[in-house]
Structure to design on (123 residues):
């Protein structure tokens, strides 16, 4: 019986580790530009750093895109607080962000699968 429990425990540990590494594979990466609508810390127990960009408002500053589907929601990794602070300074301004899309984000990482790791202000 002890041997069976040990095998099940070992197998479940290996499966969880494999699933964790699989979910953290970068599926795609690139850049997006738009107006930063909001940036905030969310969550009851696990605080995640979440943001939202208006991608449709680039042409002529048309902010009516907020009502449409021209939103892009993203998360900021907790291990990169400098990007979060920069985003707080750029709220309402036009920015360009570099991101990586993970296969799946765990609940303690963020609400989305898109993680922003660099930001620059568009003048």
């Amino acid at each position: 019986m002890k041997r069976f429990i040990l095998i099940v425990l070992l197998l479940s540990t290996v499966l969880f580790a494999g699933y964790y590494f699989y979910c953290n594979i970068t599926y795609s990466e690139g850049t997006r530009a738009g107006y930063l609508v909001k940036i905030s810390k969310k969550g009851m127990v696990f605080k995640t750093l979440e943001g939202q960009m208006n991608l449709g408002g680039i042409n002529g500053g048309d902010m009516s895109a907020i009502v449409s589907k021209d939103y892009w929601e993203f998360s900021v990794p907790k291990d990169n607080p400098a990007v979060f602070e920069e985003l707080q300074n750029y709220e309402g301004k036009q920015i360009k962000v570099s991101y990586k899309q993970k296969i799946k984000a765990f609940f303690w990482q963020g609400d989305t699968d898109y993680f922003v790791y660099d930001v620059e202000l568009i003048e």
Notes: The chain is about 25% helix and 40% strand. The first strand starts at residue 26 and ends at 42. The helical segments are 2-23, 81-89. The chain has one domain: 26-121.
